[in-house]
Fold:
Amino acid sequence: MNGHIETSEDELSFDFGTQESPKPKARAFSRFAASAGGWFDGVSSRAMVMRARYDGWRETASSKLEEIDLAPDLAQEIGSKRWFRGLGTMLGLGAVALAFWPDFAPLEARNSINLDQTARDEFRSQMITPLALGADSGRHMSASPQVIPLKSAPERPQIEFVATLSSGDSFMRMLQRAGVGSGDADRVNSMVSGAVPLSDIDSGTRVDIVLGRRPEPGAARPLDKLAFRARFDLELEVFRNDAGELSLKRNVIRVDDTPLRIRGTVGQSLYRSMRAAGAPASAVQEYIKALDGQIDLDRSVAATDTFDMIVSYRRAATGERQAGKLLYAGIDRGDTPRTQLMRWGNEGRFFEASGVGEQRNGLVAPVPGSISSNFGMRRHPILGYRRMHSGMDFRARHGTPIVAVTDGRVSSAGRAGGCGNAVKLAHGGNLSTRYCHMSRIAVSAGQSVRRGQVIGYVGSTGLSTGAHLHYEMYRGGRAINPRTVSFVTRAQLEGRELMEFRATLRRLKEVQPGAALEDLAPRASEVEEPKREIEKLDMKREIG
Structure:
């Protein structure tokens, strides 16, 4: 069916094929459309009127609210009516906010389950407790008739552990405490003592021990293997040979004794600069103590100077390193050495490059305390009358170490009347010193002492009102004021000894800084070949 619609302003006609629509219906539809268009026009005009009225009301309300000014700037016109009105607005809004503040009361939790013992056992049966806590959880089943009980629990064929030689303990007691049988312990102790003195084995040495299978129940386990580092350059190994006898094997370790030389700028702190450069703390203390006896470190050493120290150092082929005592201490300014000190002799004194050992310091306080009474006339605190005070009193606590003010020899050590426990030292130049009221004496008569060596401890023995040190000095047997004497000890190297000293100093100065920190190149005999072919994959190959 084909058709089309044709419309005009006065009529609406339908044409479907050859049929024509009746004209009364077309006129009715035209009138309906016209009335609907008028209704829509009325609604649109009324909406426009309402929109205009709303815009006018909004503008009127906005202008009135602007006149009221409920939220003025509180930073302006402080104290005025407008400012108080804004303050009231702020307080009102805060009250509203607090009124709607949420409640943080705790929520009611669900009641915990009341577990009886049956429920607890059921939960425990489904747990896995670690061995450290007993491992008694999980479901347990009783043994069935198919299970045959063992006559005895099997033992491990070998036990490997590490024993440590503690301070004050003997090597024999350490072996017995580790479980080594008395026969094996005696044999090992005799073999080790034949290789190295047992007293030379340092405390803290770790010993690897392997014990074998017991020959019978209740017997001690036999020693299968034992190994430890007896010295820095020697490792001892005890093993059981094919004949079942214990044998000792010495493993000599290659050691390089190249000294460690450290140089650097002094900076703001000599101690911190040396520690930052990698110097050991003990060597730094020796360095400062050696220089302090020769120069004034506060005035003679500048921040731009260079410190130079050489320490005895040992490197083992196995990788261990060991730092020793200070060998050389120097201060350079530019390229010119200002101070050069080297340790020399059996006593370990430091000598200048010229071969002169000297201490230029004056009076050294025997204790680190202030002076409570000087040399001269005073009223005796116990006797009550004025008498000559032939020394100096130092304040110090009971037990404080007392040191010798300079090198000397102990002429007497013991009880000395009102002086209590006292030590008297004889020095060169017809000088002698005495230290009184000691609680304990640390030296004996005839012994040689060095400057700074502990000779006793502060006490209150003899005619004394409290713990302190009474220090006296004599010249030719007559008491003198210790403040008037400055000690200068000097030692001079001569002849062949001086030539050896200078040659040794020259060799030390040829050591390059940091050369001792390099690892030792392993020799062919020190490279352990891999036991399995797969381990050879990790070995480095040289190309070319």
Notes: The longest strand covers residues 321-333. The chain is about 25% helix and 30% strand. Residues 1-21, 539-544 have pLDDT under 50 and may be disordered. The radius of gyration is 51 Å.
